[in-house]
Design a protein that fits this description.
The protein is α/β, with parallel strands linked by helices. It is built from eight helices and 14 strands.
Amino acid sequence: MIGDTHQVDIVRYGRGSARSTEDTVVVEEPLALRVDGKDVVVTMRTPGDDLDLAAGFLLTEGWIRTVEDIGTLAYCPDEDDPDRRNLVEARLVRSYRTSGPDRYSWANSSCGLCGKSTIDGIRQELEVLETGVSVRAEVVLMLPDRLRLRQRNFSRTGGIHGAGLFDPEGEEIVVREDIGRHNAVDKAIGAALRQGTKGRAAILMVSGRLGFEIAQKALVARIPVVASVSAPSSLALELAEELGLTAVGFVRDGSMNVYTHPDRVKATSNPALEGKQH
């Protein structure tokens, strides 16, 4: 099974009848990441943009700080199946991890923090985000539609998450998809890192809920605003409030909730929206 989607035979029931047809589903396969010869993580992901995923993971998990810290990043071929590429090897010029690959052994497609020892330990590794960047409310409100338009596989399957980086004016920097929310974020951050455009990113827009791991990755990548079409978690909001991240939830149908550091979001001239600002 190669590629990011797969056709399957199904029986579709509806309106009192049944018929045989096909459906398109998202591919989910393991990807192993090896750093300087050591196995670090196996994550369930949608194949595609794997080098972006690896680069984003290395940044958001503290292995590197800039793209210059990466020497080489490449697939290791599967001897039994050369077309199946499920192992990426990173050779680092410089590494900021001193404890070895003990924080991560396995990550499923929905949890970017499985295996971490304590939440307090994660907080201690993060720095307060201080920036003069601000965004207009109307810019944030238009991002769900912009993200959705670029989600090619969501339109085909309905079963994949999207993450996009945008500049303060809402111009797209990069959009990536994956079956896992945290993988989609790592792919987007990694792509911008490798392209040299991460410094332009002011907003991270995600299609799923805003959990702790999404807030953590935005903070490490120094992205000041993270927005979601869905709800945030209490732990994500605690982290955002403590470390200077603007967290925005329920961005849909012309409204949104700004939960933390609302001064970074400038009110629109729309009186109806102004009444919703915190």
